[in-house]
Amino acid sequence: MDNIDAGYPIGELGQAWGKAERDAWLSRQVRQRSYEEDVIAAIDGLRARFDVSEYGRLDYAQGSFPLVSVRTRNWRDDLPVMLVTGGVHGYETSGVHGALRFAEQHMADYARRANILVTPCISPWSYERIQRWNPDAIDPNRSFYESSPSGESAALMWLVAPLRGRFLMHIDLHETTDSDESEFRRALAARDGKVFVPGKVPDGFYLVDDAANPQPAFQQAVLAAVSKVTHIAPADANSEIIGSLVVAPGVIEYALKKLGLCASVTGARYTTTTEVYPDSPRATPEQCIQAQVAAVRAAMDYALAHA
Description:
This protein has 9 helices and 10 strands. By secondary structure, the protein is of the alpha/beta class. Helices cover 33% and strands 19% of the residues. The strands form 2 sheets. It has an 8-stranded mixed β-sheet, sandwiched between helices. A hairpin with a 2-residue loop joins β7 (240-241) and β8. The active site is at residue 275. GO terms for molecular function: metallocarboxypeptidase activity; zinc ion binding. This is Peptidase.
């Protein structure tokens, strides 16, 4: 079976993980970078221009992590609210730094037309370990639902709950990496006691629309802006990207709420999830960050023009 060939070092084929396996997985996670130095320090540099607040704290055996948001000042009740989220999966680097770059360079440009809220790094423990899951081996981006087992997800839902009904746009910044195939999907199969079925990582940028609220013109406006920065992922031989039918060039659809995805939390009219491919030989880390920023700006421009 594929899962045997994959040789994931934890667990037994056909058996979901218990505590021993989760502990074994956790023991393998090594801190590789600093949330304090990379993210909190950058946010501190924004305090003179924007309101910065701690909306939660994650206390793990490996450390305590403040969850920090940045928002435009002097919010007005007559303006729509826009949400930018990054780092739901901590290993997806350009999502974190794209959100920070947008806040640093462009957020003030929109302050008179919208109330903007940015949460650059929802999963700081995972950011430090370049990991998809939190330390409980839970994927935060499948955990945005009531009584969530993920502290990362629960904190964001608490933050946005008072604003539901006011959100016009929410863009969630992600990456699809080669490590999705080499590590994370294999770990998922092992954790759940399932057979690993290999997939194909698309070369390029794509978007995930909401199957329950598709906004094709909005998605194409975002892609048009991003295409000036980096290339758009083509469909594979099955007219799919990561196993989902391509509904328009560079766009697939997911049932966001049913799957517990971050982009479902606001109920906004316009939602999208970006997927950058940082391992492409045709893209640099800087291009990946710029692609995220271009996506955010295009999403805001379109939403405001069609409010």
